[in-house]
Each structure stands twice: as structure tokens, then as C-alpha cells.
Amino acid sequence: MSQPESFKENYRTLQTIAQKLSNNNEIDIDELIPMVDEATKAYQLCKQRIEAVEQALNSRLDAEAEEKIENQ
Questions:
Q1: Could you tell me the sign of the dihedral formed by the alpha carbons of 42, 47, 48, 53, in that order?
Q2: Whole-number pLDDT of residue 67
């Protein structure tokens, strides 16, 4: 089983594609669909990772807050 790509790798992919699109006055139409597909996949993976980290942080912060309340 292959290891999932990291947030950093997917974010770098998004940056690279955005840079290609902004630096080129003429985009090769044959490259556009594959670039959009790759960017969409990278975006979804980044979004999922951010949501997972946010959920984990909220759980920890909630647990810590409950512990403080119980110790008062």
C-alpha cells in the first residue's frame, strides 16, 4: 500500500500549477485539462488534511477545556 502524499507535496503542486498558469500568456489547451485535474486532486487532498488537523486540534482543545472545568 502506498503512503498518501503529504500536504506539503500537494500544496507545492498547487503552487506550481498556479505559477504556470499565471506566467504563460498562451496556455496549451491540451495541457489545461490535465493541469486542472491535477490541481483539483491536490486541492481536495490539502482540504481534507486541513479539516482533519482542525478536527484533531478542536478535540484536544475541548478535552483540555473540560479538564480545566472539572479541576475547578
A1: positive
A2: 82
At 3 the pLDDT is 46
Per-residue pLDDT reduced to its tens digit, 27-39: 888 999 999 999 9
Question: What pTM value is reported for the model?
Answer: 0.76
Opening angle at CA 55, ends 52 and 60, nearest 5? 125
Query: Is residue 10 exposed (0-12), middle (13-18) or buried (19+ Cβ within 10 Å)?
Result: buried
Rounded-to-integer distance, Cα 42 and Cα 14, Å: 7
CB 56 within 8 A of CB 42: no
Output DSSP code: residue 38.
H
